[in-house]
Amino acid sequence: MPPKKVTSRSKAKSTLPPAPVAPKSGPWSTARILNSTSPITQKDIHSFLVRAVSDWSTSYTEDEKRAIIDSLPPRLRIYDVDSSCKLVCPVTPDFVLGDPHVKAAIPKFKRQVTEGYYEKGWQKRAMAATRERVDGRFDAYLQEQVDAFFGGDEDDEEDGGGGGGGVTGTVEDVASSDGEWKGR
């Protein structure tokens, strides 16, 4: 007989317990860990990850293991079990020790935490700026980035004031190696 379909209206309960949720307050709350004054930026996160993976079978309950696997990128969400039906860690200590992406991500994460990118206020401002940019409005930061990338104001280019473009003259003066620009 096929399993009973569970809908939002049915009273049937899931066989799996709900995944652990990050505490809203206390020493392990997201607000405490992911803010610009967080002590996590001074910790050795790489060693912590190696230890967490190495001690997988003894340090976590099956529910915690499932929650950890659920939080991994899709390609690493592997729910293999060993001979005693315990979840096996989908990441090896050698992977954490040697993967260049993991090594690069840790200092980037620390820098982002230090700069406040995970704080609610910053997230709200970033979302608002994104909506404004989608609507075609520039803010001071974006205008600064555009000016830096494309060489600044036109006034700077006319007087040779270091606009950053590096090219002066007209299109006719520029010779292309494939000849397509000449005479346009």
What's the gist of this structure?
The protein has 184 residues and is mainly alpha-helical.
Q: Percent of residues in beta strands?
A: under 5%
Shape: elongated
Write the H/E string, N to C.
HHHHHHHHH
In DSSP terms (H or I, runs of 4 or more residues), the helix count works out at 9
Structural class: mainly alpha
* Largest sheet report: none
State the low-pLDDT regions, or none: 1-16, 159-171
Total tally of structural domains = 2
What does this structure look like?
- Pfam families: ASXH (PF13919).
- This is ASX DEUBAD domain-containing protein.
- InterPro entries: ASX_DEUBAD_dom.
- Residues 1-12 have a biased composition (Basic residues).
- Residues 1-33, 151-184 are annotated as: Disordered.
- The protein is an all-alpha fold and 184 residues long.
- It has 2 domains: 22-116, no CATH class; 119-160, no CATH class.
- The protein has helices spanning 30-33, 45-54, 56-59, 62-71, 93-98, 100-114, 120-134, 140-150, 154-158.
- The radius of gyration is 26 Å and the shape is elongated.
- It starts with 29 loop residues before the first helix and ends in a 26-residue tail after the last helix.
- The model is unreliable at 1-16 and 159-171 (pLDDT under 50).
